[in-house]
Design a protein that fits this description.
The protein is α/β, with parallel strands linked by helices and 587 residues long. The chain folds into three domains: 2-145, no CATH class; 172-321, Reverse transcriptase/Diguanylate cyclase domain (Alpha-Beta Plaits); 343-578, EAL domain (TIM Barrel), CATH 3.20.20.450. The protein has helices at 2-8, 14-17, 22-25, 27-49, 53-73, 77-100, 106-162, 172-184, 203-210, 212-230, 253-268, 296-313, 323-342, 382-392, 395-410, 425-428, 433-444, 464-476, 493-498, 508-513, 518-533, 546-555, 571-578, and strands spanning 193-200, 236-241, 244-250, 271-273, 276-278, 282-288, 318-320, 348-357, 363-374, 378-380, 418-422, 451-456, 480-486, 503-506, 537-541, 559-561. The strands form three sheets. An eight-stranded mixed barrel has the order 8-9-11-12-13-14-15-16, surrounded by four helices. Helix 10 (212-230) packs antiparallel against helix 11 (253-268), helix 13 packs across helix 14 and helix 15 (395-410) runs parallel beside helix 17 (433-444). The relative contact order is 0.05.
Length: 587
């Protein structure tokens, strides 16, 4: 803008000071010159008729004042007119003095000469003053332009401080301020305002695939869909972070969930990006400002707890906050704190569940399962503390302890038995994982061929190349690799052909349902046939009845694991009960 101002008003020079056409473009200027000439002519005539020098001097002074006035009011053509008129008068008076020796005209001659000098000086200083005036005007315009630019920058900074730069929605700071104002002025007339948090569950994965710029395009489209479904005021839509949006608006409790489902359905609609068609998975949690929280912090916390519960449920879950969520969150915090000291306090114990050969009924190994009996919290379910340990990174030391303890216990088993150890994603991507395996074997003396590592399909997503490299190195050392819970989650047949695997474990959910559901039975049969074609052995989990065992045996399953043959037991119980060399009897 400052450059534009400079272009509009170039630097001042001597030529710019005098606009010689301006006087005559101005009709008033031309009128002034005409009046000046008329008065000068009249005064000159009067001066000639006067006899005394004093009277002529008075008239001359009037002419000087008239000329100065003209130069000041019209500093361009006025100066030339006055100078020309005074010069002509000077010559006429000088002629009278020389030709007629009329010494009475001498004062008028002096005054006329002084007037010529005066108007010239005034004109010169006037040019300089006018030039300074124009420079000041130029600087004033530049300062005005700069002030306007600063004001616009301030407005932009204020907007960016309160709005998301990608979507243009309110950001977390602005939403928090709005909630503060709401709680400060809340009345009983509006008790149904609710805060809804919506998370794009798979956006991080999509963003890594399509790139950041395309990811921003996706966020802008998602923001548009949410706004469109939310409607206009008083609904407020904000973006809190990379994949979380917020909606704050008055809702009736019975209609809120229906409204949220409509928003999620709009987000789930296929999104076309170039030639790709993307589908966004979401979950949502909400809390009411009056019923669930009394201030901004508690409202945000309650909505976030509800979102966490919906995230755990998956399948586009929607959850409303309830007090049990706060208790579960408190328990998770307590568990996380206790996990820090559990290893030092020796609170973990190992349990082993036998794996039985389908044809002979003989035990061929066992799966190592960890149990935690906290001194403060009591017995903890692995389904509760293992996911927590994976989230906060504590699974690495815990997993290393499990691996080493399982190897030490397995040394006392028959030489042909294998111990199966579950490996978490956190352990697997740890750069010291392979060293920890070797360290556990060396300390225990367990042969590599007796160790089986069980990995889950969720570990493989997005890390296929890295996983493939690690698994190949593990198998090169004679250890066995099993794919656990096959058929659930994100199953892909490409894993079976591209990754170095030895075994498939059929998830217990299929085993339980296969007798009553023909489709599940067809899936189990397909898995077993496919494994045989690919040269992979199979183990069925969750075998609880003889009928299930007979059916799986008929379909070609290699090994069974489940309560039919034994529950997880301690090392001493395992050795006493199963190290007999005889087929295991069904319980």
């Amino acid at each position: 803008m400052m450059q534009q101002a400079k272009q509009d008003r170039p630097d001042v020079d001597a030529r710019d000071t005098w606009d010689y056409a301006a006087d005559f473009r101005n009709k008033r200027g031309a009128l002034k010159i005409a009046v000046y000439l008329l008065l000068m002519f009249v005064s000159f005539a009067v001066q000639r008729s006067l006899g005394s020098a004093a009277q002529q001097g008075i008239v001359a002074q009037f002419q000087v004042i008239l000329s100065v006035f003209l130069v000041v009011s019209l500093p361009k053509y006025g100066f030339l007119t006055a100078l020309g008129t005074l010069t002509l008068e000077f010559l006429i008076i000088l002629y009278r003095l020389v030709s007629a020796h009329d010494w009475n005209v001498l004062p008028g001659l002096c005054v006329c000469l002084c007037a010529m000098i005066t108007v010239t000086i005034i004109s010169l200083f006037g040019q300089r003053l006018n030039r300074k005036h124009l420079e000041l005007r130029r600087h004033k315009d530049e300062l005005s332009a700069l002030n306007r630019e600063i004001a616009l920058a301030g407005e932009r900074a204020l907007h960016l401080a309160n709005h998301d730069s990608v979507t243009g929605l309110m950001n977390a700071t602005c939403l928090r301020n709005l909630l503060d104002d709401f709680h400060a002025g809340r009345t009983e007339e509006a008790p149904n305002d609710a805060l809804v948090l919506i998370e794009l569950e798979n956006f991080k994965l999509i963003d890594s695939i399509v790139g950041r710029r395309n990811g921003e395009v996706i966020l802008q489209e998602i923001a548009r869909r949410i706004q469109e479904q939310a409607g206009h005021e008083p609904a407020v839509v904000a973006r809190l972070d990379g994949s979380c949006f917020a909606l704050f608006a008055p809702f009736e409790p019975e209609s809120l969930e229906r409204k949220v489902r409509g928003i999620l359905a709009a987000i789930h609609a296929p999104l076309t990006l170039g030639e790709e068609v993307l589908e966004i998975r979401t979950c949502a949690g909400y809390a009411f400002a009056d019923a669930d929280a009394k201030d901004t912090e508690s409202l945000l916390r309650c909505a976030d707890l509800a979102l966490s519960a919906a995230r755990e449920e998956r399948r586009s879950g929607i959850k409303r906050y309830d007090s049990a969520m706060a208790r579960r969150a408190r328990r998770r915090v307590d568990m996380s704190n206790e996990l820090e000291m559990a290893l030092e306090r020796h609170e973990f114990e190992m349990r082993y569940q036998p794996q039985v050969d389908a044809s002979s009924g003989l035990v061929v190994g066992a799966e190592a399962l960890v149990r935690w009996d906290s001194a403060r919290l009591g017995a903890m379910s692995p389904a509760e503390f293992i996911p927590l340990a994976e989230q906060n990174g504590q699974i690495v030391p815990v997993g290393n302890w499990i691996l080493e303890q399982a190897c030490r216990d397995a040394v006392a088993w028959p030489d042909s038995w294998k111990v199966a150890v579950n490996v978490s994603a956190g352990q697997f991507i740890n750069r010291d994982f392979e060293d920890e395996i070797e360290r556990a074997r060396e300390r225990s003396g367990l042969l590599a061929g007796r160790l089986k590592l069980e990995v889950t399909e969720s570990m493989l997503i997005g890390e296929e190349l890295k996983v493939d490299e690690i698994l190949r190195r593990i198998r090169s050392r004679a250890m066995t690799v099993a794919l656990d819970d096959f058929g659930t989650g994100y199953s892909s047949l490409s894993y079976l052909t591209s990754l170095p695997l030895d075994e498939l474990k059929i998830d217990r959910s299929f085993v339980i349902a296969m007798e009553s559901d023909p489709r599940t039975l067809a899936i189990v049969e397909t898995i077993l046939r496919l494994a045989k074609l690919l040269g992979l052995s199979t183990t069925a989990e969750g075998v609880e009845t003889s009928a299930q065992a007979d059916l799986l045996r008929t379909l070609g399953c290699d090994r069974f694991q489940g309560y039919l043959y034994g529950k997880p037991v301690t090392q001493a119980q395992f050795l006493e009960r199963f190290c007999t060399g005889t087929p295991v009897k069904a319980f």
